[in-house]
Automatic annotation (TrEMBL):
Chief site of localization: membrane
Family as reported in the entry's similarity comment: Belongs to the TonB-dependent receptor family.
PANTHER family linked: PTHR47234, TONB-DEPENDENT RECEPTOR
Keywords: Cell outer membrane, Membrane, Receptor, Signal, TonB box
The protein, known as: TonB-dependent receptor
Pfam families from the UniProt entry: Plug (PF07715), TonB_dep_Rec_b-barrel (PF00593)
Residue stretches in coiled coil: none
Keyword Magnesium tagged: no
Species: Candidatus Brevundimonas colombiensis
GO cellular component, as recorded: cell outer membrane
Domain TonB-dependent receptor-like beta-barrel: 599-1105
Subcellular location: Cell outer membrane
Domain (TonB-dependent receptor plug) ranges: 56-170
InterPro entries: Beta-barrel_TonB, Beta-barrel_TonB_sf, Plug_dom, Plug_dom_sf
Length: 1138
């Protein structure tokens, strides 16, 4: 971080040089302008606790006035903030829908795309309880919008002023004071272009003064309904567009050239997937003929057994579809894609739209109720008391990806001699693969049973350079796999938030030699309670219900020929619990529960949950959509209810004043204070609701109560250097310091130094250097391990991943590191694809999500950051209606705390010059020995990320990364033309406002083993974020008169790399070159505001009027920066009767 300190010295040196050079010019302006022209009332501004001239605010500041917020026509406050380039990666509700637990509907500010937790959100300069369990992140939806006076955004570190977490900056909502009157604001919005998603809101604010205006009391209330938006509501997703592999290149130069002039991937629309529809399709065991190695579209993957993944590639002659209770061969329509063994995409025919494959809802349904009351009372002329109380409730509902299962259909699924009992797979409780007997299943259509019984598999020999693999002798393979999406996984959040503030403040003027003495003593209590209901499936019950047979003798219910669950029939045949340890003569429990001896099986009836599952079992037809009875679905349904709580107590006292004006530059300002804060969190219910059940849900232990406290002391001083001097109009040096003692991480201290210089009235310069910290939150520290899944996992060690690595260095590193990982398990693979055969490649198949766990890390340390800024403010006298602000910033964060996904950890493990021990320790590869060494698929199965660890395939949580850096320039320009003054005819006024950001660099240093290894995010598109090089919003407002305003807003961002050009040099025919970037994105909005009279204002807006859409080659991933909702509109009415 020495670079930032040198930059600050450089910045102060520049200012010193400007001071010296500007002396003559300043002297000339002294005679032209009287000193009174620069006098401004001194007030408290954000970024400082000292009263000062607002034009000398020490830090870069973006201000949003109340009128701007209302006139913008955005449906929510976060929608408006996310248009500000510095906040463009803020979390909007669509970002976490279907992918994040307990976060439905949250809207969280994120400055500089450095993470939600690194932006401190305040209300009137005071802390606010976190809206998500275990965090301090504040959902700005809880801020009463009619009460907002303005929003001030500090775009630099500010921990020395406001405390921990202000690493990237501060967003401070300043509320209206002493409001008197009644104001009602209502809005209606159509939020998608397809036109069936309507949003409503009504807000009211009332206030009244009493006792000769000494007491003000106000009340606020709001109801808002935001509709549920699913994938098919978005036109660009509903089109079903994706890049599909159509050509595979030879894996080594010795086989053939990687560039053959045929694009490897092309764009198609109207796509469906056949391999995992709702309630399934069934594929008979098969093998696909491998292609010649000079054109290796289809790899060699022979079928070796019932549960071998390579046996079940969808195939027009092997894949069956269900119409009602009958089955037929699936209609593949126009089959799309030539690469891979499993090619499930088609246009027309059967299948599931690809837009709904990974996720259903894109925006949760929200019903919100928000209330706040408050008062301000002048106890004396110098002392005031204030109080406020807030209550909000937000109920959200969203559907994520459905449950998913594989059922292997075979009479031999249990092994030779095994009893014909329901087969519930072994291993982790999250396992989604199970078995069903074919011959006596009550729901498998007869035609499909016959096809399975007669099925044979033709495997193939190894292909050669110019010839496909040759067919071997056909062998009997009377088995199949039924792959399906089952019942939905949905989440309901009932989030309640309470916040109470009470305090006193005083303004005493001069006391002795101290002038403008003021103080503030306040206490804040906040509590967030969230009831999170997660619905999914009881896996044991699903398997019991699916394994249904015909009770020919009527043993279960006395009705011969009735379809019953097999376990009920077995229980009726043998009601005695004969051997709970081995299951001999009983009903075997194949679930391998904790404490069970390996190779033994308990009796399901030994457990209360098992007995209930048998007695209540209702047959479930899993073969085909629409065949499921309501009773059966209710039987397999499961839910987990978690009650979460955050509590925050915060007491702050501060005292400020001004000392003598020693040399005529202005008084010295001083502020001191102390703060005590306690944070508490807990989450209970998950453990009790899970009990002894196997659930397709995020199961795990409760979040035990956890807390920490801090005691903090802070001070600030401002030292005016000169005013109206030969050296310039004004200069000030200020500094701040904070010492904090935390009960969990110990002592930390931070400081800041700022210099402001205004050589002449027209221009001013500011530079600052600040250190900041972020203390790990309670969730990062103490979250218990809970079950989760890594979906769409790409193994970084697979031969194809290595050959398609984003740069040659990664490729080289992965070959060496993956070889070392495999050697530790006594395995060898051709990771580089160096040999002509693919038999020795590592080619894992991940057919469903990988189970693992999320959890905290109690050994985390605080993050530390340094930030440097240099600002120029230009307000020329020759153009009094023009203002230009340029803010240069640098931020460097070390010891970064980041939640690492399984995919990221797996990549980081092998991407560096050596194995990253920290990341590798969280990824677990299989411990299963190779079943068939001669089969490539079986050999690859032995090294997959899977169930090799104590919690499945991975532990996903937070660790201290090396560092992150960001550097860029924010720019703002405003200009107003009064046509009557400028052109002598009255067309009204035109105001143009430009606000943007130029991102010079944004680097993530994620390799602890190699701290200098970084990934450049600037001008790239990343999972969870968009980093355009330049983004700006330009608003042109025309006011032909005082009552009418017309606005045109253009939101522009430059194109971003999906893949960088240089990484494609070795394979320039991978895809058309335009598919490597997003393309520039421009959204245009048009709005109107009309003041009908002094009491009524009407606003209307058309957003994205030209219906711009994300680039179609982005697939179905929703990036909120690229407006996904199409053309839409909103109208609102503001009524002020008194």
């Amino acid at each position: 971080m020495m670079k930032l300190k040198r930059n600050y010295l450089f910045g102060t040196t520049i200012l010193a040089g400007i001071v010296a050079l500007s002396a003559p010019a300043s002297a000339q302006t002294q005679n032209a302008e009287p000193s009174s022209a620069t006098q401004v009332d001194e007030i408290v501004v954000t970024g400082s606790r000292i009263r000062r001239d607002p034009t000398t605010a020490p830090t870069p500041l973006i201000q949003v006035a109340r009128e701007e917020l209302l006139s913008a026509g955005q449906n929510t406050v976060i929608d408006y903030l996310a248009q500000i380039p510095a906040l463009s990666n803020s979390q909007v509700p669509s970002d976490n829908t279907g992918s994040t637990l307990n976060a439905g509907g949250l809207a969280i500010a994120n400055l500089r795309a450095l993470g939600n937790s690194r932006t401190l959100t305040l209300v009137d300069g005071r802390r606010h309880v976190g809206s998500q369990q275990g965090t301090l992140s504040v959902s700005v939806n809880t801020i009463p919008r009619l009460l907002i006076q303005n929003i001030e955004i500090i775009t630099g570190g500010a921990s020395s002023i406001y405390g921990a977490d202000a690493v990237a900056g501060v967003v401070n909502f300043q509320l209206r004071k002493d409001f008197e009157g009644l104001e009602i604001d209502s809005s209606y919005a159509r939020i998608t272009e397809k036109g069936r998603n309507d949003q409503y809101r009504i807000s009211a604010l009332i206030g009244q003064n009493f006792f000769d205006d000494r007491l003000n009391v106000y009340g606020f209330g709001e109801y808002e309904r935001i509709p549920q938006v699913d994938s098919m509501d978005l036109k660009w997703i509903a089109r079903g567009t994706a890049l599909v592999g159509v050509d595979a290149d030879p894996i080594t130069a010795s086989i053939g050239p990687a560039i053959d002039g045929v694009y490897d991937n092309m764009l198609f629309s109207g796509l469906y997937r056949l391999d995992r529809p709702r309630w399934g399709s069934t594929t008979l065991a098969n093998a696909q003929q491998p292609s010649p190695t000079t054109n290796p579209n289809v790899p060699q993957a022979n079928c070796t057994g019932v549960t071998a993944a390579a046996c079940y590639s969808v195939d027009p002659s092997k894949t069956w579809w269900f119409d009602g209770t009958t089955a037929r061969l699936a209609n593949f329509g126009q089959r799309i894609g030539n690469t891979g063994s499993n090619r499930p995409l088609n246009i027309g025919g059967d299948g599931e739209p690809i837009g709904t494959f990974s996720q259903d809802d894109r925006l949760p349904r929200t019903d919100a109720y928000r209330f706040q009351v408050g008062s301000n009372f002048k106890v004396t002329n110098q002392i005031s008391a204030y109080a406020e109380a807030k209550y909000t409730r937000e109920d959200t509902y969203a559907v994520g990806q459905p449950t998913f299962f594989d059922f292997y259909l075979s009479d031999s699924i249990y092994g030779a001699g095994a009893a014909p009992v329901t087969y519930l797979s072994g291993g982790a409780p999250s396992n989604q693969s199970h078995g069903l007997r074919v011959s006596d299943n009550a729901f498998i259509p007869a035609t499909l049973k016959a096809a399975i019984a007669a099925n044979t598999v033709t495997n193939y020999g190894a292909p050669t350079l110019n010839a496909s693999g040759q067919a071997l002798a056909a062998t009997a393979a009377p088995w199949a796999r039924h792959t399906m999406f089952g019942p939905n996984r949905d989440q309901t959040n009932e989030r309640e938030l309470q916040r109470y503030v009470i305090g006193f403040k005083g303004d005493h003027g001069d006391i002795g030699f101290v002038k403008n003495v003021s103080w503030d003593l306040g206490y804040t209590y906040g509590r967030m309670d969230n009831l999170n209901n997660e619905r999914g499936v009881d896996v044991q019950r699903l398997v019991f219900a699916a394994d249904s047979v015909v009770d020919t003798l009527g043993l279960v219910n006395g009705r011969a020929g009735e379809v019953v669950c097999r376990v009920k029939l077995l229980n009726a045949q043998n009601p005695a619990l004969t051997n709970a340890q081995t299951g001999a003569g009983g009903i075997r429990d194949y679930s391998n529960r904790a404490g069970q001896t390996a190779g033994t099986y308990g009796d399901v009836r030994a457990r209360a949950e098992g007995r209930a599952a048998i007695n209540e079992c209702v047959p479930l037809n899993i073969f085909g959509k629409g065949n499921q009875s309501a009773d059966a679905l209710n039987y397999v349904d499961a839910s987990v209810n978690v009650r979460q709580r955050n509590e925050q107590q915060d007491a702050v006292g501060s005292l400020s004043g001004q000392f003598w004006d020693f040399w005529g530059a202005g008084p010295i300002g001083v502020a001191i204070g102390a703060e005590w804060r306690k944070e508490f969190t807990q989450g209970i219910g998950r453990s009790a609701d899970t009990g002894d059940r196997q659930l397709f849900l995020n199961t795990g232990p409760d979040f035990a109560p956890a807390s920490y406290e801090s005691k903090e002391f802070f001070s600030e001083v401002s030292l005016p250097l000169f005013r109206d001097s030969i050296l310039g109009e004004y200069a000030e040096l200020s500094g701040s310091y904070r010492y904090s003692d935390y009960t969990n991480v110990g002592n930390v201290d931070v400081y800041g130094v700022n210099l402001v210089y205004r050589p002449v009235r027209d221009i001013s310069f500011k530079t600052s250097f600040n250190t900041s910290v972020r203390v790990p939150n309670l969730g990062e520290l103490y979250s218990p391990y809970t079950q989760t899944f890594a979906n769409n996992f790409t193994d970084p060690c697979s031969t194809s991943s290595i050959n398609n690595a984003s740069n040659s260095e990664y490729r080289t590193n992965r070959i060496a590191n993956c070889t070392a990982l495999a050697a530790a398990k006594n395995l060898t693979y051709d990771f580089a694809g160096a040999t002509e055969t693919r038999d020795d490649d590592y080619t894992p198949l991940y057919t469903s999500g990988i189970p693992g766990v999320n959890g905290g890390n109690p050994f985390l340390q605080p993050e530390e950051s340094e930030s440097f800024t240099f600002s120029t403010v230009f307000q020329p006298r020759f153009a009094p209606r023009l203002s230009v602000v340029l803010d240069y910033y640098e931020i460097e964060i070390s010891n970064v705390i980041a939640s690492v996904t399984a995919q990221t950890a797996a990549n980081v493990c092998v991407n560096g010059s050596s194995l990253n021990a920290g990341a590798c320790s969280t990824i677990f590869r299989e411990n299963t020995p190779v079943a068939n060494p001669g089969n490539n698929i079986d050999r690859s199965e032995a090294f997959k990320v899977g169930s090799g660890g104590p919690f499945g395939g991975f532990i996903q949580g937070a660790i201290n990364y090396a560092k992150r850096t960001a550097r860029g320039v924010d720019f703002t320009a405003n200009y107003t033309i009064d046509t009557r003054e400028a052109f002598s005819w009255n067309l009204g006024t035109f105001t143009n406002s430009l606000q943007g950001s130029w991102l010079i660099e944004q680097k993530q240093f994620n390799n602890i083993a190699n701290p200098d290894d970084f990934t450049e995010y600037a001008s790239t598109l990343q999972t969870g974020g968009s980093y355009p090089r330049v983004r700006f919003a330009n608003t042109l407002t025309w006011m032909p008169n005082d009552a009418l305003a017309l606005t045109w807003t253009t939101d522009f961002q430059t194109s971003q790399d999906i893949y960088q050009y240089r990484t494609q040099i070795s394979n320039i025919d991978d895809r058309p070159i335009e598919y490597l970037r997003t393309g520039n994105f421009i959204r245009n909005d048009f709005g109107v505001r009309y003041n009908v009279n002094d009491e009524v204002t009407v606003r209307a807006k058309v957003t994205n009027i030209f219906a711009e859409e994300p680039a179609p080659w982005l697939g179905n991933t929703l990036y909120s920066n690229f407006d996904p909702y199409g053309r839409r509109f909103n109208v609102s009415l503001n009524y002020r009767p008194w």
